[in-house]
Amino acid sequence: MDAAQQEATARARELQRSWYGEPLGALFRRLIDDLGLNQARLAAVLGLSAPMLSQLMSGQRAKIGNPAVVQRVQALQELAGQVADGSVSAAEATDRMDEIKKSQGGSVLTSTSQTTASSGAPTVRRVVREIQSLLRSVAAAGDIIDAADTLAPTHPELAEFLRVYGAGRTADAVAHYESHQS
Asked: Where is the signal peptide (predicted)?
């Protein structure tokens, strides 16, 4: 690799750090290890070609262009955390990865049919996940915590919100959400 390629790769990894909180190579390797995948299976679950995954991991490409893929990455990160803390078994994780693979992604503006439970109302977990996804799409967890620390002396409730939803676990955010409903 020549100097220009090395510089481009370093720049791509720095952009990945700012957009995703860390270089995608490190993030994807952790998902592969935590979920017992290989690169081909990770690419399939995310909906990426194997060459595209390789280019993102190596820093030849900086950005994931498809928002649905970004959401699948976030869903896999949450799943890996649940496997690590024992709240999801390996067998359940395999089933969840199949669900994640089929998911179309979406955003805060997803259609009602995708965001509602059988009762017709959005589930608490779904609302929390949308808030987490939105916060995490605009800033990395470390930046959110820094912002929370800055706000804490004058706006402690807002600081707590940022910490819980921007950098915390989904289960803690669900508990926070439920405790603040009237």
From this structure: none
Mean pLDDT by 10 residues, the chain (182 residues): 89 88 91 91 93 94 89 91 84 90 59 38 74 81 92 95 89 86 68
78 near 170, Cβ under 8 Å?
Answer: yes
Q: Is 23 exposed, middle or buried (0-12, 13-18, 19+ CB in 10 A)?
A: buried
Q: Are 55 and 80 in contact (CB under 8 A)?
A: no
N- to C-terminal Cα distance for the chain? 59
- Those residues with Cβ within 8 angstroms of residue 48's Cβ, 6 or more apart along the chain or in another chain: 56, 64, 69
Distance CA 31, CA 77 (A): 7
Q: How far apart are CA 31 and CA 25, in angstroms?
A: 10
Tokens of 145: 């915590």
- For the full predicted model, state whether its pTM sits above 0.85: no
H helix runs in 103-155, sequence order:
112-115, 124-138, 141-151
